[in-house]
Amino acid sequence: MVRIFLVRVMHVSDDVPFFRLELLEEEVNSVVSVLRSGWLTTGPQVALFEQEFAEFIGGGVQAAAVASNTAGMHIVLEALGVGPGDEVIVPTLTFTATAEVVRYLGAEVVFVDVDQQSLCVDPEKIAAAITPRSRAILAVHFGGRPCDMARIYELAEPLNIAVVDDAAHALPTAINGIHVGASSSAAAIFSFYANKPMTTGEGGMIVSRNQSVIDRCRITRLHGIDHDSFARSTTGQSKWRYDVIMPGFKYNMSDIAGSLGRGQLLRVLESHRKRQAIAARYREELADLPLILPVWPQSYQTHSWHLYPVQLDDSMRRDEFVEHLSRHRIGFSVHYTPLHQMTYWRERYGLSDNQFPVATQYAGRCISLPIFPSMRDDEVSRVIAVVRSAFK
Questions:
Q1: Phi/psi of residue 230, each to 5°?
Q2: Domain boundary among 199, 230, 265
Q3: pLDDT < 70 regions, the chain
Q4: pLDDT tens per residue across span 206-231
Q5: How confident is the model at residue 236, as a pLDDT?
Q6: With a threshold of 0.70, does the pTM exceed it?
Q7: How far apart are CA 8 and CA 14, in angstroms?
């Protein structure tokens, strides 16, 4: 088996990047075969990818491939009827896409704080934020750790508020063995961006057991046309006509991406085992340092370990720690500056740090360490050694 490793920037041998993409030769060949097939846009590879992804998630879901997680969240909320006059509850500790899709539809974002242990949305903050205008809750499974979905459903279902999972980090995140997306949410949307648990370069997947949501998303993802170009080209002359039955968008996935996704999906569980092993080493070998490590998941939870964010205590400033990692050529990132600190969201809604004490404190001292499936044991050891040396 040939493995191909791609890094954004070339490094000397002792660099450890924040992320390194790994592709198998078979995955590259599958993309080449699509290029040679003469059919590049949405077609048979996407259809097979959707079927295989739905089977992986289980629970009787159906899947609709889209151009990105952002696109998927947009058309899911549109399918649920979110629009002007509505409110959607969103955690402040997330990427801006989670909130911006609400504004696409003319609805208003209601930001809430996160739980100090999980860093996922705090259900009790959701409870305090619900109003008669609340139409949906976007549950972000931060870093791949599952939210407290039982409590969120308990709040939402009696009030007929839709729960939508932002599952960008959450493959193969599960609760009691049930994958995110296969439970009671209206829909879940996964991301296949380059550094996610699996990738199609750019892309996403909607899963839902709600037939009307899936049906509408399949139409709105491609201009509101009643059937796609591949279906028209393969069903005979009588099917050359098509109709536009609703306003839509250009959010479809290409067969190039679909073919890559099919290969990546076969390795999701293997990749997860590798991420989990790295997280376990960090947990064991950094435990005695003045760091706050991610809380280990409960026995009934499956954490995808898409991210491994640590928090510094008062013994070291983050700028010092960042300079130390950079000097020793260890990649890192920050996930995330919370949205209440971003100019647009702060000014639109008059937000301040004291409204979100947990996210504010976390954001001031967090650093995400490298954790990716192709990370070698010696690279993990090097990260651990460099982190430990920062506190000597």
A1: -65, -45
A2: 265
A3: 1-14, 228-240
A4: 999 999 999 999 999 999 998 765 55
A5: 54
A6: yes
A7: 16
Domain range for 177: 22-265
Q: How far is CA 271 from the centre of its chain?
A: 16
Residue whose tokens read 């934020």: 129
Residue 330, domain CATH = 3.90.1150.10
CATH number at residue 88: 3.40.640.10
Contact indicator for 157, 334 with CB cutoff of 8 Å = no
pLDDT in tens, 173-199: 999 999 999 999 999 999 999 999 999
pLDDT attached to residue 7: 43
275 and 255 within one domain: no
CA-based angle 176:212:81, to the nearest 5?
Answer: 95
Which residues are within 8 A (CB) of 64 and not within 5 positions of it... i.e. 6 or more apart? 50, 72, 205, 206, 207, 214, 217, 218, 221
Is residue 129 helix, strand or coil?
A: helix
Domain count, the chain: 2
pLDDT, averaged across the chain: 94
Do 123 and 204 fall into the same domain? Answer: yes
Show the beta-strand stretches assigned E in 113-215. 134-140, 162-167, 174-175, 178-179, 187-191, 204-208
Q: Are residues 299 and 367 in the same domain?
A: yes
> Which of 125, 196, 239, 274 is flagged as catalytic?
196
Whether residues 115 and 194 fall in one domain: yes
Question: Does 274 map to a domain?
Answer: yes
Of the three residues 221, 243, 265, the one that is the final residue of a domain is 265
Sheet with 178-179, side-by-side order of all strands: 178-179, 174-175, 301-302
Q: Is 196 a catalytic residue?
A: yes
Residues 88 and 159 in one domain: yes
Phi, psi at 278, each rounded to 5° = -65, -45
Torsion of CA 11, 17, 19, 25, to 10 degrees: 40
